[in-house]
């Protein structure tokens, strides 16, 4: 299956880079409307979503698609792509150069490949993680083609920990890290994968926010802790548009006793 894995990387890279170049023209200038869940959507989101769906249908016609802006019901196919055409739409509309195009490929409901591209920064992350799928994937995590691994540092007040806007009120005082808020779920977690940050929390991510980073985090040596319910495997016929998966990411399992006392309300 070596050719298949290579094809996945080439497809994801070409697709996200081509679409990223196109929507950069709307960056900071795109009118947005508010969706029912309070998040924003622009015409660039919808256009990028359609372009990605069309590219998948052409290149992998036997694969299903689950998308934030189109088909939100998980299909009954062994292989399925999960798409977030613009993760960080609010940043995108305000001209803040941290937003991404995120793709995750699932096998029998579990992500085994992820690719996330940040057009304004020209940063790309990819990873394979076979887990217990039984597939002979070339496990590994990469940033701009170079291998990455989570940090093995011990925590200190000079180490970073990422929060989302909905999690700030649940962190107890005297938290032993420097807090950062990036506004992009995928990049929140990817900074952990690349060793820049020791941990991150997202309070309300949807499956398209996390499917692309799931295999990258695992392949980089990170610890994924679901704070409510496990997101994967996804189930055919389920509409995932209203389901959130509160998540804690750590650079290594040993940090959980350090962080857990400050997150008791999450019931880890």
Entry summary:
The chain has 268 residues and is of the alpha+beta class. Helix content is 25%, strand content 25%. The strands form three sheets. A seven-stranded mixed β-sheet has the order 3-4-5-6-7-8-9, sandwiched between helices. Strands 11-10-12-14-13 form a five-stranded mixed β-sheet. It has a two-stranded antiparallel ribbon with strand order 1-2.
Structure description:
There is one protein chain. The protein has 268 residues and is an alpha+beta fold. It folds into 2 domains: 2-145, 2-Layer Sandwich (Fructose-1,6-Bisphosphatase, Chain A, domain 1), CATH 3.30.540.10; 160-266, D-Maltodextrin-Binding Protein, domain 2. Helix content is 25%, strand content 25%. The strands form 3 sheets. The chain has a 7-stranded mixed sheet, with helices on both faces. A 5-stranded mixed sheet has the order 11-10-12-14-13. A two-stranded antiparallel sheet has the order 1-2. A hairpin with a 2-residue loop joins strand 5 and strand 6. Helix 1 packs antiparallel against helix 2. The model has no long low-confidence stretch (mean pLDDT 92).
Q: What is the topological layout?
A:
Blueprint: H1 2-23, E1 32-34, E2 40-42, H2 43-59, E3 64-67, E4 79-87, H3 89-94, E5 100-107, E6 110-118, E7 123-128, E8 140-143, E9 146-147, E10 160-162, E11 178-180, H4 185-193, E12 199-202, H5 207-210, H6 214-219, E13 223-226, E14 247-250, H7 256-259
Helix pairs in contact: 1-2
Lateral strand order in the biggest sheet: 3-4-5-6-7-8-9
As a percent range, the share of strand residues is: 15-25%
In CATH, the architecture of the largest domain is 2-Layer Sandwich
Annotated CATH topology of the largest domain: Fructose-1,6-Bisphosphatase, Chain A, domain 1
Q: CATH first level of the largest domain: which class?
A: Alpha Beta
Structural class comes to alpha+beta
Number of strands: 14
As a whole number of angstroms, the C-alpha radius of gyration is: 17 Å
Shape: globular
Uncertain ranges: none
* Major β-sheet annotation: 7 strands, mixed
Distance between the termini: 38 Å
Order of helices and strands: HEEHEEHEEEEEEEHEHHEEH
CATH fourth-tier homologous superfamily of the largest domain: Fructose-1,6-Bisphosphatase, subunit A, domain 1
Overall number of structural domains? 2
Can you count the helices? 7
Q: Which whole number gives the mean pLDDT?
A: 92
Helix content: 25-40%
């Amino acid at each position: 299956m070596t050719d298949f894995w290579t094809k996945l990387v080439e497809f994801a890279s070409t697709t996200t880079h081509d679409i990223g170049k196109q929507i950069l023209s709307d960056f900071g200038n795109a009118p947005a409307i508010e969706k029912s869940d309070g998040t924003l959507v622009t015409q660039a989101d919808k256009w990028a979503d359609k372009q990605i769906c069309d590219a998948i249908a052409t290149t992998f016609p036997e694969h299903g698609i689950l998308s934030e802006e189109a088909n939100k019901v998980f299909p009954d196919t062994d292989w399925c792509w999960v798409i977030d055409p613009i993760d960080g739409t609010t940043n995108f509309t305000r001209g803040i150069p941290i937003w991404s195009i995120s793709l995750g490929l699932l096998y029998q409901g579990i992500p085994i490949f992820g690719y996330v591209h940040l057009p304004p920064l020209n940063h790309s992350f990819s990873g394979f993680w076979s887990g217990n799928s039984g597939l002979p994937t070339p496990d590994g995590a990469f940033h701009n083609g170079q291998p990455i691994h989570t940090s093995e540092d011990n925590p200190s007040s000079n180490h970073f920990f990422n929060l989302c806007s909905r999690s700030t009120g649940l962190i107890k005082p005297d938290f032993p890290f420097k807090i950062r808020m990036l506004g992009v779920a995928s990049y929140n977690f990817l900074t952990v994968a690349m060793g820049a940050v020791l941990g991150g929390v997202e309070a309300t991510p949807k499956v398209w926010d996390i499917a692309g980073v799931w295999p990258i985090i695992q392949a980089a040596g990170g610890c994924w802790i679901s704070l409510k319910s496990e997101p994967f495997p996804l189930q055919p016929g389920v509409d995932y548009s209203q389901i959130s998966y509160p998540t804690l990411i750590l650079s290594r399992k040993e940090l959980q006793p350090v962080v857990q006392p400050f997150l008791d309300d999450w019931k880890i």
